[in-house]
Hints:
Number of strands: 14
CATH superfamily of the largest domain: Type I PLP-dependent aspartate aminotransferase-like (Major domain)
Bound molecules: pyridoxal-5'-phosphate
Number of domains: 2
Strand content: 15-25%
CATH architecture of the largest domain: 3-Layer(aba) Sandwich
CATH topology of the largest domain: Aspartate Aminotransferase, domain 2
Amino acid sequence: MMTEPDSKYIHGGVPKADMQRLDVAERRVLDFSVNLNFFGPPPIIKEKWSELFETIEQYPSVEGDGVAQYYQSVCGVPHRNFLAGNGSTELIYLAARVLGYKRAAIITPSFHDYERASLLAGAEVLRCPLFPHNDFAFPPKEQLMEMIKNVDALWIARPNNPTGNLFSKTLVLELADQFPEKWFIVDEAFVQFLDDWKERSLLTENPKNNVLVLNSLTKFYAVAGLRLGGMVGHESVISRMKHAKEPWAINGIADRVASLLSGCTDYDEKSRLAMNAEKERVFEALKDMDGILPFPPSANYILCQWRKTDNLDHLLAHLLTNGVYIRDCRNFPGLEKNYFRLGFRIPEENDRMLSLMASFEAPRSDPLQRAISSPPYTSEGVFLLNER
Ligand SMILES: Cc1ncc(COP(=O)(O)O)c(C=O)c1O
């Protein structure tokens, strides 16, 4: 008998829940579990807020014309190759539903929703595990080719979240040419944080028949609450997506904000410069720290392993008690052994976090006796690649 896939959401970043779990009195925290642009939303949004409010009685455009305009003006994407989404999350689920693949390979650890969307669309999932001994490097081409032969679709996040490494753009294009009958779904939610991002992104490439590129505006412009994202692909695929999609999914304010964002070039440049400086600085500082193993970042967040004690909860509790919150990554398959992620913030806040990390002292007796981290997620329909 077919069992329903386990469709619970696997996200993190709920400070209140962790405070309760770890018996820390509730307080305000500096939240390093989020990985949004640390400058916050571009100032123009606040400046135009009352004008935006005036428009809320109107229905928005059916397909999010303001979002399409953003991608056309910033990345040169023609409207026929573009579909807007209520955040890229909506498009992850739409892609899985519409493409109708039977079996997908998913690089693991990565953003959980590729797996959930595939399972909900009735597909089987093959996890392709990455390992810490080589900084979670992607498998070599030959190994990827062997894996692709056994599936209909491959999901890739570039940069990958939470490991932070960047799958080669040339390799995606080569694989897509070698396997024209397979789908390559590439999530570039964090690509704008990279230096020279337009050269490194697939958004600016001529769309191939079998490659779909997803992007988010919520991360780089720090507008997670507005929900803004896009999908770029060949005209034939985009029109299939449009046929299956609900109208008016992009609310009118978000749509208008998207068209304002294309004029924010100073903010874009300033953000990339500052983020990249913090990325290098925090990485170096973490490398020098006893009991923390950081992995090389490429975007605005960094994956680390906690090695000073045998339980990440010790660090979480210490930081929470001092008003700092980080992303516990133990609910990502493959990251159960005390991995955590930090999203970079402004320099003073990063310094505060670093000095708290450095001041950690192992408890003499362990107040955290309970086995409190949630078990890793597994589900009907999910297989580890090397188990098959
Ligand atoms: C890799 C990745 N892709 C996509 C998303 C979804 O972003 P949004 O729906 O806000 O565009 C996230 C959110 O955390 C993410 O980490």
